[in-house]
Amino acid sequence: GIYNTAGLMNIKGGVVSANNYTKGNGGGVCYGSKSSGYISGISIYGNRVDAGGGGMIIQGGANVTIGYASITGNTAKKTPVGIYLYKATLTMTGGNISGNTALSGGGGIYATDSEPVKLSNVTVSKNSAKTGGGLYMLRTKLIMKDSVISENTTTGSGSGIKAVQEGRCDI
Asked: Is 67 left (phi over 0), alpha (psi -120 to 50) or beta?
């Protein structure tokens, strides 16, 4: 996939697909420590990772804004799959996160210890995970506007949204 650490990376248009990362996180797009960027008009699909972040991982103080993206059909053997957010910032204004599969938590988005996740005009659907099928917020606030959460599945709790340990939702 695409990996960025400690720099600015803007992606306008294109496809990131069929990447397989067997040694860690971030199969499709990775924004690492202290990086930033803007993404629009991109399709991130069919990526596979053994750990987390099959579609995207945003971590370590990274700050990413997504104007429109389709993040679909990614898989992770462990936790989060669509977007894995760890101690970072994400604003997404348009797009869909769907058909992603994680064996543990967070099929669509898994956010932990992060700044508020802001979603507007985003559809989170048909994702699956052991817990938090659509969205999993761990010590992270979720702010949603004009968005849809539907048809996500889990074998545990929170098929749509699971918020734990001070995770909060403003919808």
From this structure: alpha
- Tokens matching residue 128: 């699956």
d(CA 118, CA 116): 6
3-state secondary structure of 49: strand
Please give the Cα distance from 131 to 90 (Å, whole number): 21
Report DSSP letters for 2-47, one per residue. EEE-SSB--EEEEEEES-EE-SSS-SSEEE-TT-EEEEEEEEEES-
DSSP 8-state class, residue 61: T
Rama region for 130: left / alpha / beta (φ>0; ψ in -120 to 50; rest): alpha
145-158 burial, b for 16+ CB within 10 Å, e for fewer? eebebebbebeeeb
Q: pLDDT tens digits for 1-51?
A: 898 988 999 999 999 999 987 666 678 899 999 899 999 999 999 998 887
DSSP state for residue 166 in the 8-state scheme: T
Chain mean position to CA 44: 11
- C-alpha–C-alpha distance, residues 95 and 71, integer Å: 8
